[in-house]
Amino acid sequence: MEGISVRTNLDPVLYESAEPPLVSLYLPTQGTADTDENRIQFDDLVSDARAELARSYKERNITGIERALTELREHLNDVVAPIEQGSLAALISNDHAYLYILGYAVEPRAVVSDAFFIKPLMKHFAFGTHYYLLGLNTDRFSFVHGDFSTLERVELPHIKDEFSELYPIVYDDHEAALDYTSLENHMPPYHGYKSRNDVKKEEAEKFFRYVDKAIRAYMETALELPVILVSVPEHQEMFRKLSTIPTLLDEGIEKNINGIEAPELLNLATGIIKHERERRTETLLEEFSTAQAHGTGSSDVEELGSALAQRKVRVLFVEEERDIPGTFDSTTGAVRYNSREEQGGHGSIEGADVADAFVRAALAQDADVVVLAPDRMPGTTGIAALYRY
Per residue in 113-148, pLDDT tens? Predict the structure, then answer.
């Protein structure tokens, strides 16, 4: 699809530089290609978007938007068929259309505005939605990208992933771990004073240091995602002592990755991510309780507007699927609430949302955005924040 691309990251440049009018569509999908429900709902959203474009942007050129909407409809089945119990998000301008495949259901929604509506995307970019698995033995390693439904091996063409490739003179490519006999015949003389276990440990450590360096170098040019170590306990301990990978999680999968079927590996990995998410959320919520008492955190909407304008927000808490009808001036920090008439919208078209504007402002200052269920939210306004100072 020309001009339409599926994205896996949310680069602020994508939405900060886009020229209005901008169309944001959110379509919960049925996960099959042979149903008319996806197309019917998509057509309804597009109809509402076109009506709003005619109403509010009738003097603007929308040729590129119309082209993208038409092409997306033609290929809709191909796009949504693989999405099971999830959603499709489309951010469309005259120049580009960016698609996001979401692993969770959202409310059907069309927003036409001067800015993209991105709040429903935030769960997609929560900590650990994407992660790496580092499967490690003493003679080889594998690197796998995962999410909550799939695992895919990461190809590292310029990185040697087996000990035998690094040190072929001392290794004869046995399937198990390092073979002491082959090592013994090629080691320098000092190895004669060492036990088999000492030799294995030294060579394993040498390989582990190489793996650590290779993965760290790879992550400098790729997405910096959490890394889960998959290895037996003794190798976990050895690797963690020397590792310099900044996103390596404390909790790992203490099994040989070669002996785990993909469904079990996926289940173990997502379980660790859920544990880590919960731990981090609890830490932030405890911090908020203290910060609010000391003036370094708040759930007051107007105060948060001022803090965002001063670029001092470190963490923004957003209540899931709750809107705050109104507008926000990111320069002055002023918040204006919509009147009852302004909140109505047309069809699936929604009015301006302060919470969404807060999310965009927070991302622009490198703040973390944390989406919480209503019963986890601090305060009662649907929005809260921790400050940098």
Answer: 999 999 999 999 999 999 999 999 988 899 999 998
Got the DSSP string for 23-88? EEEEEE--S-SS-SHHHHHHHHHHHHHHHHHHHH-TTS--HHHHHHHHHHHHTHHHHHTT-SS-EE
Residue ranges of domains in the chain: 4-125, 131-277, 295-387
CATH class of 131-277: alpha beta
DSSP bridge pairs for 99: 6, 90
Cα(205)–Cα(258) distance, integer angstroms? 20
What gap in Å lies between CA 46 and CA 31, rounded to an integer? 20
Q: What CATH number should be reported for the domain whose range is 4-125?
A: 3.30.960
Cα–Cα distance, 139 to 165 (Å, whole number): 10
Alpha helices in 143-187 (DSSP H): 163-166, 180-184
Q: Which residues pair with 265 in a beta bridge?
A: none
Closest CA relative to residue 200, chosen from 176, 179, 172, 170: 179
Q: Over 90: is that where the pLDDT of 349 sits?
A: no
Angle at CA 33, nearest 5°, toward 31 and 35?
85
How many whole angstroms separate alpha carbon 216 and alpha carbon 212? 6
**pLDDT digits 0-9 by tens, 145-170:** 999 888 999 988 777 765 566 655 44
Structure tokens at 123: 């769960």
What are residue 331's phi and psi, to 5 degrees? -85, -45
Measured CA to CA in angstroms, residue 149 lies from 36, 251, 267, 270, 311 at distances of: 25, 20, 9, 9, 36
CATH class of 295-387: alpha beta
Closest CA to 377 of 302, 322, 314: 322
Q: Which amino acid is at 27?
A: L
What's the rounded Cα separation, in Å, for the pair 44 and 309?
37
C-alpha closest to that of 125 among 223, 27, 247? 223
d(CA 89, CA 76): 12
- CB 178 within 8 Å of CB 171: yes
Q: What are the residues whose beta carbons fall under 8 Å from the beta carbon of 298, sequence distance 6 or more?
A: 292, 304, 307, 384, 385, 387
